[in-house]
Each structure stands twice: as C-alpha cells, then as structure tokens.
Design brief:
About 35% of the residues lie in helices and about 20% in strands. By secondary structure, it is an alpha/beta fold. Among the domains are: about 1-95, Alpha-Beta Complex (Spore Coat Polysaccharide Biosynthesis Protein SpsA, Chain A); about 225-280. Strands 1, 2, 3, 4, 5, 6, 7, 8, 9 and 10 form a 10-stranded mixed sheet that branches. α1 links the parallel β1 and β2 (about 35-40). α7 runs antiparallel to α8. It starts with 6 loop residues before the first strand and ends in a 16-residue tail after the last helix.
C-alpha cells in the first residue's frame, strides 16, 4: 500500500487541452514523490477530461464532473476541499513545476516550523515554452542565492509598496493545510485572489522565501486585454487599502499611494507586452474584450 500523500497538488482547469498534459507530467516527475494530484475540471468543453483520464498514475485523481461552469473561487475551493496531504499547492493548468520544486519547499517547511508557507521564484515562459524571463519574483524580500524568514507584516508592506503580488502565482507557493483560512477565498477579489489568500493563510505568521526558481508561469497572447489590465490595477488599489486596514502599523497611506502608482505602471507594461505578443501571433482586435485567463487570477 502506498503511503498517504504528504503534498497535495490541486490543478484547476478550464478548457486546458493544450497544456494540461505538460502540467500534470511536471507534477508527477517531481523528485519528491509522496504526492497526490487533484484535478478540478470546470466543465471543460474540449478534451481536458479525456487527457486527464489517460494518466494511469494512481496519484492522479479527477474530481467528479460539474455540468455548469463554476466561478474561479468555487472551483479552487472544491479542489482544496478534496486534498489529503499536510501541505498543499495550487497550480494552474498551463503552468509547470520544475523537478526539484516540491523537494525544495517541503524541506524549507520542515526546517522552518514557524512558516505557514514557502515561496520561490518563477520562470516566465510563452505559449510555446520559450523562456521570456529567467527568474522573477520576491523583489527585495530575499537576496539572490538566499533564504529568508519574513513575517506577514513585512510581506504586506513590501507588496503594497511594490504595487504587485511579490509572492507570485500559486505554482510557486506551498502552504500548510493547517493554516488554510475559512472561507478559503474572498469573492471580492478576482485578480488578487491568490495574494489575498496568502495573506489570510499568513495572518501574523511567517513565510519562508527562497530565491531558487521552482516553477514556470506561462503567458499567452490570448490572456489579457487592455480593459483587463486596467481592472487588475484598480483591484490592487483596493487590496492595498485592505492591507493598510489589516496592518495599520506597517502599511501607511503613502505606501498605498505609491503602490497604486506602481500598479498602474505595471499594468501599462503588461499591456505593451501582451500587445507585442498578439502582434507576433497575428491576433487582431487588441484593446477589445479578450477572454480572461481561465486559470490565472
């Protein structure tokens, strides 16, 4: 009989036939093998479920089919509600884990028992797997080649001042199941669903941050419109104000103003990047209502 999983990896997916196979293979090929993979298919209309069922590995578990598409929060919630491991990670279906990801982060959480979560850096890749940025994330919270224990107050202030989610997408974060909040996700947040979730997992606890690259975050010319980028910036402004309310001694009004300006600048940079990607891909209609990401917040 195989041992109970130590790590549960949740894969929420909607119409992910292009990338879900590579995503699952990246999880199953981890050097840390005490895992389960819980796939929450959100009423996909393509070959997603067929591809998932083609895996004979008993560690892969496809949750019962839903007949109507759930919102992002509900599908992530049903995935996390089904886990059995002491440690949990969410990875969107078009992202990848590097082979040592779970080994590194499991060891970090064992070494730092006060840490609610472990976080690494990520590689940015395009729709075809080409590397766009070799290492991204965490900002000045950790030095190159280093590991740092950082408390929630410092994380809140650093993210606010940076104007972005310094901890990054869920693929780069491993969380103790014992600290998961209730409810898991706050429906007020869509674009900030991940960082707001991290902050409620942390509360007044520590995060262990490590400068090693542990995952790949995929960007696609189909993911973002100009309107969506502006919506992200507006929501982040509300999130920064929320951080100021939760951590009034650490996050000031001037921090919120600075973060808001930087979020707007980052939104502009994203619009330029995605516009260039769409031009290269020959996709027309920039500036309209391109579909929102199906997995990424």
């Amino acid at each position: 009989m195989s041992p109970e999983p130590l790590v549960s990896v949740v894969v929420p997916v909607l119409n992910g036939e292009r990338h879900v196979d590579a995503c699952l293979r990246s999880v199953l090929s981890q050097t840390h093998q005490r895992i389960e993979v819980v796939v929450a298919d959100n009423a996909s209309t393509d070959r997603t479920a067929e591809i998932v069922r083609s895996f004979s590995d008993p560690r892969v578990r496809l949750l019962p089919t839903v007949t109507e598409q759930l919102d992002l929060h509900a599908n992530w919630t049903r995935g996390l509600a089904a886990v059995r491991g002491e440690l949990v990670k969410v990875i969107c279906h078009d992202d990848l884990l590097l082979p040592e990801c779970l080994s590194i982060q499991v060891e970090l959480l064992h070494r730092y028992p006060s840490a609610a979560l472990a976080c690494g850096r990520r590689r940015i890749i395009d729709d075809h797997g080409k590397v766009l940025i070799g290492a991204r994330g965490l900002g000045h919270l950790v030095k190159a080649g280093g590991t740092q224990l950082v408390d929630a107050h410092d994380v809140a202030r650093a993210c606010t001042r940076a104007g972005t989610n310094l901890l990054g997408e869920p693929a780069g974060v491993l969380i103790r199941r014992s600290v998961l909040p209730a409810p898991l996700f706050d429906p007020r947040w869509r674009y900030a669903i991940d960082v707001e979730f991290y902050m409620r997992c942390l509360q007044d606890r520590d995060a262990v941050l490590d400068s090693r690259v542990v995952c790949c975050f995929r960007v696609s010319p189909h993911q973002l419109s100009a309107a969506l980028a502006n919506g992200q910036a507006r929501e982040l402004r509300g999130f920064f104000s929320e951080m100021a309310r939760r951590y009034p001694d650490d996050v000031s009004r001037s921090d919120v103003r600075l973060g808001t300006v930087r979020a707007q600048l980052l939104a502009f940079s994203r619009r330029v990047l995605y516009r260039q990607m769409r031009i290269r891909a020959g996709i027309a209609g920039w500036g309209g209502s391109a579909p929102a990401p199906t997995g990424h917040p």
